[in-house]
Description:
alpha/beta; Rossmann fold; 5-stranded parallel beta sheet; 3-stranded antiparallel beta sheet; 16% strand; binds 2'-deoxycytidine-5'-monophosphate
Amino acid sequence: xxxxxxxxxxxxxxxxxxxxxxxxxxxxxxxxxxxxxxxxxxxxxxxxxxxxxxxxxxxxxxxxxxxxxxxxxxxxxxxxxxxxxxxxxxxxxxxxxxxxxxxxxxxxxxxxxxxxxxxxxxxxxxxxxxxxxxxxxxxxxxxxxxxxxxxxxxxxxxxxxxxxxxxxxxxxxxxxxxxxxxxxxxxxxxxxxxxxxxxxxxxxxxxxxxxxxxxxxxxxxxxxxxx
Length: 227
Ligand code: DC
């Protein structure tokens, strides 16, 4: 199949990264998790002791950071300035602050430019919030993945439980996810929206293989139809 780009957007916990990775593996494409890039910058801001309301300093830091995403045995590895931060960027502290960092237009500008570069040679499956609308408006296949807040909280709860992390209740997770949705949807720069031409997939009652197959079928349609 000739190379093309796939944009997958949607709210937190809709299963984007799992699905995007499987689709990429299946097609032999490169998976790019843009949320991990916002998380890496957030991690570095926290480490540097920069205040989260100091936009100029935060933008400067983003400009001076070298972010790399590399394939690993168990998923994508994330490096910032050569340091492996793959697990650090999933901490509660980073998760709690990343939406605020992602609201800063100057930081988005820096990361969007990097993301466009990563997709320039095609053959990329990119997931995030603004991929189909802003980063890759010309992506050949666009998907908006969603699911009910309660099912997204349940999935996240199970993930944490399986990882031995039981410190947070299902109710709290539901509240956190709803709050993050609201922040991502209401921010001024590149809010989370369903991009023009994006196919809506509500995964509330779908299994992972079913979702992957739906996307692969869109890809086959694209390849066959020569759109
Ligand atoms: O997908 P995630 O939970 O790792 O994303 C982390 C945060 O980054 C989330 O608050 C939304 C934000 N984000 C964004 O604003 N734009 C993207 N393209 C990807 C993520």
